[in-house]
Amino acid sequence: MKNKFILILFLFSLFSFSQNRRQRILSIIDQEIDEVSRLSRQYQGQNPNILFRRSELYLEKGRLIKEIENDKYLSLSPQQRKSVSKSSYFNDSTNLFLKAKSEALELLRKFPKYEKAADVYYILGFNEKEFGQGGKALDYLVKAESMALNKSKSQVRIQNALAEIYYNKKDYPKAIQYYEKNINNTADRWWTKDAYNLAWSYFRMRKFDPAIDLMKKVEVFSKKGKYVDMTSSINKDIGLFYAESGRMEEGVVHYKKYNKDFTLELIQIASFLKESGKFAQAMTTLNEALRITKDTKNKAKIYLARMDLFDKYEKINYHLKDSISLYKLTKNYKLSKDQHDNFKFQVKKQIGKLQKKIGNKTYQSSKVVVNEKVNQVVKYLTLLKGLEPQTKNDNHFYMAETYYQAGSFDKAIENYIKGYSIAKKSRNKKTMDRSIDGMLQAIAQPKSKFPNREKYYHKVYTLYLSHDSRSAKAKEIYKKLYKLQYDKKNITEMKKILETFNKNFPNARTDSDKMVNSLVEIYSKQKRDGDLAMLMKDINSGKYLMSASGKQGLADVSQKIEVKKAETLLAKKDFKNAKQAYLKIFSSPGDKVAKANAAYNLMVLNYKDQKLQETYTWGTQALSLMKDKEFFKYRNTFLSVGKYLFERLQFKSSADISHRSFAKLCKSQDRTKKDFFNNAVTMYKASGNINKIKSLRNAARTCNIDRKSITNLDKELLDSYLSSNNIPELERSFRNLESNRELSAVLIYPAFKTYLYYQNQRNSSKQRIWQSKIEQLYRDAKSRRLKIPTEGLDAVSMFDVARLRDELNQVKKIRLTFPEDRFSSLLDQKIQKLDKLQQNVAGVQKMGANYGVAHSYPVLIEGYQSLIDEIERFQPPGKSPEYVKSFKETMGQVTTQLRQKVRNFKQLSSKAIKDNEILSTYKGKNSSSVYNVFEDMKFYDAERSGR
Amino acid sequence: MKKISIFILFFSSLSFSNSKLEKNIKYAYSKGLRYSLVPLLKEYLYLSKGKLSSIDPYLEKIILTVGAKNFEGLDSQLLKQGRSYSSRYLAAKKLFAEGNYQEARTLFKNIPSSHVFYSFSQNFLAVLSYLNKDYSNALSLYESCVKSAKSKLSDELDSRVYKQIKVNRDICIAGIARTYYAQRNFKKADYHYLDLDKRSIAWPPTLLEEAWSSYYGENYNRTLGKLVTYKAPQLQFVTNPEIYVLRATTYLRMCLYGDVNKVVEDFYSRFEKAAKRSESMAKQFKNKPDYYYQLVRDYKSESDREFYFVLKGIYKSPNVKSFFDNVKFAELERKKLSRVSNSSLKGLLNRNIDEFIKVQKKVIGIVAETKIEKYGIDLRKSFQTMSYIKLEVLGRKKDALYEGKEYTGKRGEIKYLKRNDRQYFWTFNKEFWSDELGDYVFALPVECPDEK
After folding, report:
1. Which of A132, B17, B329, B440 has the greatest CB tally within 10 Å of its CB?
2. What's residue A879's pLDDT?
3. Segment B447-450 long-range contacts (CB within 8 Å, at least 24 positions apart)
């Protein structure tokens, strides 16, 4: 801190040029820069001295510009300074320093062996110093020093710059080492500045004698004109040197030389000493200052400074004395605002401290001491009244505080109350707050300390709530006040407080609950049921606020009463009223268990009364409220109720009761679980509710229903989806069952339905998958010798017939042509293929599927018939009529044989159809669903042949 | 430094035997011919190995007319073998130019006081003593030179010969002042400078020396007065940058910073262009004496004011002017050739004139080139000096401001004059009369703080 101070002093004293003079110097430097540039041109830039000079000039200009910029920046208000960028105020100087640096570096680059390199490094070092780069600056300057010639001017200025850097770094031993190197060389005009810094360095190292001696010498030199004038700084600082060294008397003598009032300097020194923690020296200096000064203004300053020190020393008597002296001064002299504020602060601080001491156990053991301190407080309060007239009404409050600290709580409370009422009149909220706070704290004292405290409770609480009814503290006070009334069992007051509390704290339900409960408690104890009922009514109407759980608690209380009542009625077999009682219990807010119990009893009572719908309704209510464990006890009742409803054809209700009961037993191993499950499936089947069955299917595995039951359920679902043609669901059910090989035969047709579904969807990949499944199922069924249903066989044979048709098409594709050899060969091929077709037809026939039987022979007949037609139509090309005739004759023999075959096949076909009794089935369209399936198939084939 | 010898050692294509040569020289001389004889004389000197005998009087006259320089191309060994004083004088001069002072001194000393070259040799001997810092001897030799020259000057002499002796005398007068100056006896120096006739060709440069002398005698107002003389129209051809440098330096010594600044800026603005021109010319026309000869010859047609004075200064400088005169008179001599009856001799002499003129022009060209080049260098150096002076001023001003002092004051009051009994005080009214030249004295106070 002090370092900063020194720096500022330095700047102001050394460079305290008038603005005009500084501008003139800058103008000269500009001319010098121009001239040096012109000179450099004369040397064609090859003279290092000139380059060096220019660099120096930029540095010099930069330093001056920085001064101007600094002044400008310092002239800003602190607020303005915060809002601006500091660096933007130093742009010009920064640019100049950079120029100086770049010139210097350029010089070193061009002339590495430049004889004045030391000076160049000095510039670079100085530059870095300006940029705040202390480390770099030091590096450059150390290098400069190593290069400078011994005893040269360069060496002097480099060493002084180094000294300054160390000085600013607070490395005073080094600063001293460097300053001392050249201190005897007094030729330079800056000697005073350097010597001044050296003196400060001595001072910092507590070498007071050389510090003072040098400072005195600087003072002498400063007056010579030739040197930088450091007088004003010395005037300020030398006193400090004397004071710190304990040579204050000499300091006074020194100041007397100036022939002016130097009290201010002494005050400043004292301030510095105080800041340095040297209170005794500071006090001596202030005493000396007070002794010599006649100026009221200065006296005021001294009193304030001494008060500060007395405060530190805890010398309250002295402090009070100076406070009174200062107060007297203010009759004729107006303190500055800061001083006045400081004075007030001091007085208040002492009051506070005294109050604290009064409250201290150590002091309290001596009544005399306490009284003395109370008296001091009174005196300070008198001063404060004068310093702060607006606080005169606060005297009772401060007195109360003092009594409080002294442990006189009765007196304290009385003063607080008085202070409060005065403050209220003058609407002094602050004092009101503090008074009330004081009262609260006083009554919060232990009874041992304040035996009469209860006397004040009501008064203080009421006063408090009249003052503040909504704060958190007020909330607590309400509770305390309520407790007071509760202790007295004053229900009227309790209700009043509760009502006000609810108004001011509508959300404080927990507290309100407690208050209400305490009322309930009183009513209950006093058996005032009517009042209790009224209270419940008021609560329900919202007069008194309660939380939901609070209300529930109250409801449970009344519910229990009702349950007892109902049970009594049951015992008396008064079922009608019992029903009413249970109904009331169920409908009133209260315990869930009681409600579930009521619902169950209502189910039973209605079952007894043969009321189907009510039985079902209360059964479901009971099931929804009862816990699983509770249900388990009564599961057989529900089995009976389900059976009862089934018997009364209430399938839906019965299924629902069974389903819900099954769900309650889901994780149980009890055998009734399967009964409920099967009952529910049966009931849902009876009522055609597939979705519910599906829902049961989904729960079955989770609830550990046996595999067989599940498979049965899946088969039910499969049939159901098959009959409702719900293919997506069918597919799902199929997947649940397909792993069971024993079901292969029955699954062929559902698979075929799915195949047809995808055929309609034109989804060929799915078709392939399903065709393959069908064929696999067929193979499995065959291998397991399972009985394949007719529609299953038809489905399989459909694919066989399709394959026969493919073969037929292959035969038809072979066209008979001449020459004769080829004709014979082709004819042979065709006949061989038809033979093969015939064998395959026999295979299909053997399978025994209706569709296969009906459709396989026609394929073979068509094959032979088409060959007969082709032969008969054929005319051997380019042959003589004789040949043709002969050829036709030969072929006639062949066709005759073929026709015979056709006739045989037709008979076989007819017989097979007859044998299988399938003809009538396929005679009329839409006569059955199976027929429709084959109609689709036909369509499918037609489409294929069209391609 | 270029050696003139390479040009002078041209011989006429037609040579004669010694006796015939002697006869022809005598014959031609009798017909009033001089310049056309220079090649014949040089040939004769060469052939006779310096033994001139009856030709010696002719050589003396011709040296005094055309200048010794025209014979300095001959071998010094050959010249010093001769018994005649003329050839020995030529040998001494050449040895002096070659830096062989010892031998030169011996030869110069041999010239008897009665001889026409005596005053010249005294001048050379004085210079040799001066160079040896034997100032008292130098002074007595200069005085002997002045005395001898005065005794030799007679109205009967050829005007060119008269002029040579007179110029030599004036140089010796200046030499006395310079010797005192060298002894830092500035008062005596100033006193002796006043001995020099202001009309003398030797005078203008001494003004600057006087100014320096006054400067060192701390008589700054007189320095400034001397220097202001160069502003006179008659002396504007003296373009030595040193004049301006000294003026600025003097103002600096007087702490008249405004005046320093003005001198510096005037100097820069006046001569920067001339400096550049000199420099570019030196590069562009290196070893082209013809160009320089024509440039100097036609100086009057030079449009640039500063360069006009430069060329005029070269034209008027003693060693250049005498060569121009040689050219002029040699041309005039052609008319006299009709007096020669022998046509082949006439033809030879005519060619000799051609040859002679050619050599003169080359010499002029070389001297001019050297002077212009030097002028450029001097200017550049002076610019630098001027800048340093200005920086000094700025530095002082700045120091004063840093110290919180002022640096301006009044200027021009009589009380600041310092005079001796032979100086007149003239109020400077910016007009120049020939007889007032060099007598101006300024009246400026010294503004340095210590002087107040």
Report:
1. B440
2. 78
3. B447/B254, B447/B255, B447/B256, B447/B257, B447/B407, B447/B408, B447/B409, B447/B411, B448/B253, B448/B254, B448/B255, B449/B255, B449/B400, B449/B405, B449/B407
Q: Report residue A185: phi and psi, to 5°.
A: -90, 95
What are the extents of the domains in chain B? 257-408
Which residues of A are less than 8 Å from B268 in CB distance? 38
Number of H helices, E strands in chain B: 19, 0
Structure token digits, residue B66 = 């055309």
B395/A32 Cβ within 8 A: yes
The pTM assigned to this predicted structure is: 0.50
The chain B residues in contact with chain A (CB within 8 A) are 268, 380, 383-384, 387-388, 390-391, 394-395, 397-398, 401-404
Is the CA virtual torsion B329, B334, B338, B343 positive or negative? positive
Of the CA atoms within 13 Å of residue B186, those in its CB half-sphere come to 15
Residue A201's pLDDT is what? 94
Non-local (6+) Cβ contacts of A549 within 8 A are A513
- Do A25 and B398 count as a contact with CB atoms less than 8 A apart? yes
Integer angstrom CA distances of residue A716 from A108, A660, A677: 105, 21, 14
Helix (H, G, I), strand (E, B), or coil: what is residue A907? helix
Distance (Å) of CA A779 to CA A798, A799, A852: 15, 14, 17
Q: What residues contact A693, with CB distance under 8 A and at least 6 apart?
A: A681, A684, A685, A713, A716, A717, A720
Evaluate whether B353 touches B333 at the Cβ level (below 8 Å).
yes
A28–B391 C-beta distance less than 8 A: no
Two tokens, residue B296: 């100097």
Contact call for A225 and B403, based on CB within 8 A: yes
What are the b/e assignments for A749-781, b being 16+ CB within 10 Å? bbbbbbbbbbbeeeeeebbeebbebbeebbebb
Mutate to test the interface with A, among B402, B406, B408 (most CBs of A within 10 A): B402
User: Using a CB-CB distance cutoff of 8 angstroms, which residues of chain A are in contact with residue B265?
Assistant: none
Distance of CA B447 to the CA centre of its chain: 37
Q: Which residues of A fall within a CB distance of 8 Å from B402?
A: 25, 189
Facing A226 at nearest CB: one of B384, B388, B403: B403
CB contact under 8 A, A53 and B387: no
The answer, yes or no, to whether ipTM is higher than 0.95 is no
pLDDT at B6 (0 to 100)? 28
What are the E-state strand segments in A443-574? Answer: none
Distance in angstroms (rounded) separating the CA atoms of residues B35 and B63: 10
pLDDT, one tens digit per residue, over A180-193 is 999 998 887 788 98
Pick out chain A residues at pLDDT < 50: 1-17, 918-947
And the tokens for A659?
């389903």
